[in-house]
Structure formats: C-alpha cells, structure tokens
Amino acid sequence: MTTLPTTAKAVIIGGGIIGCSTAYHLAKLGWTDTVLLERKKLTSGTTFHAAGLVGQLRSNANITQLLGYSVDLYSKLEEETGLGTGWKMNGGLRLACNEERWTEVKRQATTAHSFGLEMELLTPSEALELWPLMDISDLVGAAFMPTDGQANPSDITQALAKGARMAGASIFEDTKVTDLEVENGRIKAVITDLGRIECEKVIVCAGQWTRSFAKRFGVNVPLVSMEHQYMLTEPMGVPGNLPTLRDPDRLCYYKEEVGGLVMGGYEPNPIPWAVDGIPEGFHYSLLGSNFDHFEQIMEQALGRVPGLQTAGIKTLTNGPESFTPDGNFIIGEAPELKNFFVGAGFNAFGIASGGGAGMVLAEWAKNGEPPFDLWSADIRRFGRPHFDTDWVRTRTVEAYGKHYTMAWPYEEHDSGRPCRKSPLYDVLADAGACFGEKLGWERPNWFADTSRGETPKDVYSFGRQNWFEAVGREHKAARDAAVVFDQTSFAKFALKGPDAVAALNWICANNVDRPVGSLTYTQMLNDKAGIECDLTVGRVAHDEFYIVTGTGFATHDFNWISRNIPEGMNCQLFDITSSNAVLALMGPEARNILEKVTRDDVSNDGFRFGTIRTIGIAGCPVQALRVTYVGELGWELHLPVEYAEAVYAALMQAGRDHGLKNAGYRSLEALRLEKGYRAWGSDIGPDHTPFEAGLGWAVKLGKNIDFKGRAAAQAQKSGGVKKMLACFTVDPDVVLLGRETIYRNGQRVGWLTSGGYGYTVGKSIGLGYVRNPDGVDADYVMSGDYELEVATERVRAQVHMEPLYDPKMLKVRG
Ligand SMILES: NCCCC(=O)O
Questions:
Q1: Alpha-carbon gap, residue 434 to 600, rounded angstroms
Q2: Which residues form the signal peptide (predicted)?
Q3: pLDDT in tens, 86-143
Q4: Which of 33, 320, 626, 778 can bridge 273 by disulfide, Cβ–Cβ 3.0-4.6 Å?
C-alpha cells in the first residue's frame, strides 16, 4: 500500500517526459521533497507514442538554448542513471526543394549561427551521402545540424524518473489527483485518491489533460488534442547512424528505428480529437490507424524514399498529442492562480523539449522566475480569445497544418478572424486596410490605394513584399504631413487608490510620482534588473494612473503589476482595454489638424510633450497623450469606444488639407526603427537591462526611492555592461528580418533583434546587442568594423549609437 507524504515543497502532476524532467531538476536543485503523481503509469499518456526526434533550431534564441540543453542532458543521462535512453546524436537534415525554401533554409542556417549552433549548407549530392535512401531529383539543397538527434521517448523518461529518484524526489504511479485546495488565491494542497499533500507549488505537466484540469481552478491553458500519425516500416537495412530528416516541402519527417524507418507528417487538414473531453481510461491508448487520412503524407514520402514502396508497414501509430494556437509550448506560472505552474502543449516537440523544459520549470518554480526569458512560450502570452475552446481549436488546426509550411516573413494567421474589432474596423476596411491580427484584434497593417488597382492582401516572399511601396507612402506622410493609426488594441489599465503612487513607484524603474497630468515612459524590472514591462504611465489624478502597454502584453503586464503591488497597499488595478479606442495622430501637421477639431489649447506651451490632458473633440471627452512611437509631433487620443467613428471622421475631415493619411502597423515599425525606439519582446525583455538597452536615462537611481530591481540596476550601473544595443544599417537591397548574425572585426558578437527598412534614410535597419564578456561601452561598439550575416552571406554594415532620425528630438518636442 502506497503511503504518500503529507507535505512536499512541490507536487508535479503527470508522469510524462515533462513531469519526470521537472522532478529530476527540482530534486537536483535541492528540493528533494518533490513529489510526482501519475494517475496511471509513467509515460502512459502521450510520451509512450511520441516519435522521438530531437531537433534544436527555433526562431527564438532562448527556446533554441532550451532545446540545446535537452541534447546536452540526453548525452549524459544514460551514464548517470545506468538506464538506456536510445539517445543518438546522428544529426538532422532539412531539405529544400524550391528557391523560396532554399532561402528559408539559408536564413535558418544564419539563425543557427547567430545562436552559436553549427548548421552547414549541403548540395543535393552531399545530402545524399548522408541520407542514401532518398531521391534527390527535386532537391535544391539541404542544411545539416550535426548535434541534432533522436531518443527513445519511454526510455529517456524512465531514465529521468530514475535520476529524479536518485536525487531524492518521490514518484507515485496509480495515484489520481482529485482536487486542489486553494486558499487566498494560492495553492495550499493537492488532494489525491490516496491522501492529501500540503505543498507550496503545483506543476501541472498533464499533457492533453492539462486544459480541462486547469480549467477547474480557473486557469486557462489553450491546447487542443490532435490526431497525429506516423508509420514504422519493417526492418529495411536502414543504418543506425542515419540522421533524422525533415522534408518540409513534402510535409514529412523521418528517423531510423530498429533498421526500419519512422515516417510521419503534418497534413494541412488535421483531425482534432476528444473535442468534448478525453474519455476516461484513455491511457496506454492509441486511436485507430486512419490509412485514408495518412495517404496524403504517404504519397509525398514515396516520392522522397522510393524504397518505401516495397517496405512492409509494421505499424501506423495514431496517437493524440497536444497542440497550441501558435505552435509554441505553454510554460510558466498561471496568471490566474499563484503557485500553479504549467508545462504542456508541446506540439509534437515534447521529447526535444523535455530536458530543457523540465530545467526551466524547476528553476521557475523554485526561484520565482525563469532562468532566462521564455516569453514566446509563456502562459501569459494568451488573452481573451484563448478562453473560447472553438476559437482555440480553429486556430490550432491552422497552426498544425502550417507546422512544416514556409514560415514567411510577416505571415499572418488566417483562421478565427475577424475576432476582436475596433469600432473603426469597417470604416478602415473601406479605406483599403489590409489587417493583421494580434491577440484576436484586427489591426490595419497597411492601406492599399484601391484607386491605383492595389489589393489589400499580403503576397508573401523573402524579398520586398507587395506592400513595400504602400508602406513607403504612409511613412512619407508621417514624416512630411500627418497620419492616423488605429491603435485601439493597446492594452490599457487604470490603477486607483490612495496607495497607487507608492505602489507604482515601487514597480516602475522611472519616477511616476510627478504632478497630475504627467506622462512617464518607464520599464518595470525584475530582481535582476531585466525588463519585464515597457509602458507609458499617465497620472490622471492624485490617486489614479492610466497605463498603456502593447496589445500582446495585456495578460502579462496586468499580471506583473498586480502581483507586484506590495502587500497591504490600498489600490486596485483594472483592465479597461475594451472601454477605450485609440487614435494616434502623428506628424508635423498633427497640431494644425488637432487645432481644427478642439477648442482646447494644444499649442506647444499649452500642451507639452510628455503630458496627458482631457480635451474635447466632436462632443467626446478625449484623453490626449502627447507621446510618440514614430519620432514626430503627435498625440495618442484615447476615447470611449462609442465616440470613435465621430472623432475619426472629424480628424479626417480636418486633415484633408494637411495631407492626413491612414497608416498601419508596418509603417509604425519602419518609423520606430529609424528612431531607434525599442520593442518589448524583441529588442528588450527580461534578459536585457535598461543599461544594456540604452534606457538607463529612464531609471531613477538618482532619486532616493526604492524600486524593484534597484539593487541589480545599481550594481550594473557601477560595474558596467557586457552587451549593448546598437543600430546597424546596410544597403537598401539587403532585406533584414531579424536574427541576422552580427560580426565585429570578424568575430560573432550577437544577432539582430529587429530588422526592417527606413524609408527616410533609404537603408535597411537592424537593432541588436553587441556582446563582449570583458565589457562593452559606446566607444567599444563604435570602434568596430561590422558585418551582418544575411542568409549565410556576409554584408558590410554601419553601426550607430544615436537614432538615425532626429537624434536631438527636435521634431518630437517641437
Ligand atoms: N514528433 C515529430 C517531430 C517532428 C520534428 O521534430 O520536426
């Protein structure tokens, strides 16, 4: 009879690879009173039927690092535990069968180089030498990553479980979690059919069962079970050292197994499973093989591996796996419930991610923060649309179907749209808007001039895309006249209460205790002085602040602020995103236009840069913020949604004689790059401090006010930095997209965090950190000779530490 402990530091729910890896790492970190509970047997959920490929390269440096950690761990786990893992570092091949895919593969190789991974380009015949079973008649080229590999999913999980036990963790199989005890918004205990365990942290690694389990406690985990099939052939003389192979143009992957081949794929019409809930008793269970559905993948594979025509098929495994709406996994502490952690939704990368995901989950649970920025996989990246199961399923079906399709620059999702619409959606659509989508919001990306025969639809490529000229027109209007951006999707919060100023001044790096009517640009830092939030704060009353942040950061920033209000302080945070529309009027003509529609004083003296006031426009009380993200004179106009059409119409009419144009997010991006404004999530984030990012001027170290992250910020200000954000320009015909490698005096020193084009300066622009373990300052940055690697080619680059456009801020303050 199993006797559960009555207390534990951490309880992990789920005995698949992620749960076992988390237990392994928590125990190694010294939390030996970690308990893992598995409802049935280890691996019996999804792990046992995973294919077991371990690839490393992703478009995000830290996720690539996490996967690289898995490879390092798997390389030594067998020796440590004495259990076989099936780990083989045979390398991984990726094929390209057309010129566009070849460009994508070359850009991926450069991304690999940026992140410090070896990835070699091969001719078709060189690829054939590594993978002699394939037909290469349609091949343009291939890339080879020598450190990729494959593992046996069940064996590697058992080895992690053994390693966890060896380090002191306890693992209980056949133990069902029936409930959680929650007290004051945090986890108190886990209730099982064999007893109660009081604990500090719960980490739910229950695979596709995670969504319904978490929902019982108000936590949203947007994942969907999808049927995924792969076949295994009878032995056909496949050598044991065969690299894994990804053939994205044919949607297929391959690996060697006992002398045969595993072959699976990602069909464009996947089948969601268990839409109304996973049946009781579904463990060590598979779905019936669906040969008809697999035929489309099989047909493609036969073209690549002719030997499959005569190979016997041993099994066609149809196992449901968790997929997510954006193809990234879901990790971190739930915003809805303290001490409730999630590691789920691994999109068929569970085995590749297992080692690293367990490591980061363990560190996050133990230390209260992840070891590095995991924003692209963070559970707080989701928002309102992700609560709706139908919407999540629709979007996830699209994401699954695009698993191997070309990842085009600027690609937008097609499904589940339109979902959240600004009140101006129809008006802007009539004006030629081509919309993009973020967190469900439809947002104009650019405006087609339909009178010239332009169509508001993106045509994707790796070169300049069809919207390039249209965005250039918007850019020019912003610099020479004025534009209006519909930025209604901005997340907006109100913080109210007698302690609002004290609380916010603790959370913000900049000083927000300024007179009513002041606007403050500020970061919010973690204890390492990493930038957790980057936002604008307006003091609208003695005891009230209006906070504006990016569309995609609504859940994250709300959670960060509310969790960091010091205990006992009397103030409340409200999400008022849906109450207010936002029109940003920007450009040298902005004042002339605004003066025509308001009786309020908007002169330079009457309405200074960096202030917020209420003005009247078209019968509407508008909160006007004199601020800019494009480097021009301008105002963000925040107004109750019901006035949006009237205020927009008044502006457009008044702007007619001033060259006012609609503009979208693509020109906003080009404008901000010229000005060197940083974007959270790419140029700045938890791995970057204000001093590294050139934002030290916004940190209140000169004031005697304590704030979160102050000690680390102070230490870095005194000790100096080891990386520094710089701007790079290259010839206009070089397309920069981000992740291009930066070389200083021939040495790799970083990669671009953003890339784009500056229409005023007529150059391609990138931002990125220059790293040096011995320390970096502006002189060091400026004294180097720079090249960028773009799709494996090196190009000369100029470096800049000042904004390319209006470095003295004359336009903004004028
Ligand atoms: N579970 C299949 C993984 C496929 C891939 O790594 O591309």
A1: 34
A2: none
A3: 999 999 999 999 999 999 999 999 999 999 999 999 999 999 999 999 999 999 999 9
A4: 320
Reported residue count of the chain is: 814
Residue 289, CB-side half-sphere exposure with 13 Å CA sphere:
12
If you measure from the C-alpha of residue 52 to the centroid of ligand 1, how many angstroms do you get, rounded to a whole number? 7
Measured torsion, CA atoms of residues 527, 531, 534, 537, in degrees rounded to the nearest 10: 20
Q: Which CATH number applies to 491-579: 3.40.50.720, 3.40.50.150, 3.30.70.1400, 3.30.565.10?
A: 3.30.70.1400
For the Cβ of 246 lying below 6 angstroms from any atom of ligand 1, the answer is yes
Ligand 1 near 252 CB (within 6 A): no
Among residues 724, 796, 807, the alpha carbon closest in space to that of 760 is found at 807
Residue whose CB lies within 8 A of the most ligand 1 atoms, among 47, 346, 349, 400, for a mutation test:
349
pLDDT of residue 608: 97
Mind listing the pLDDT tens digit for each residue in 617-645?
999 999 999 999 999 999 999 999 999 99
Ligand 1 neighbourhood includes 250 CB (under 6 angstroms): no
pLDDT of residue 516: 98
pTM score of the predicted model:
0.97
SS3 639: strand
Closest C-alpha to 684, from 521, 442, 512 = 521
Whether the Cβ atoms of residue 316 and residue 229 lie closer than 8 Å to each other: yes
ipTM: 0.89
pLDDT, average across residues 275-296: 96
Q: What is the mean pLDDT of residues 224-253?
A: 98
Return the structure tokens found at 568.
């006992």
Which residues of the chain form CATH 3.50.50.60?
A: 7-85+151-224+326-381
Question: What is residue 348's predicted lDDT score, i.e. its pLDDT?
Answer: 83
Task: Determine the distance separating the centroid of ligand 1 and the alpha carbon of 90, expressed in angstroms.
Answer: 15
Span(s) in the chain for CATH 3.30.70.1400: 491-579
What's the pLDDT at 814?
76
Q: Residue 2 has what pLDDT? A: 72
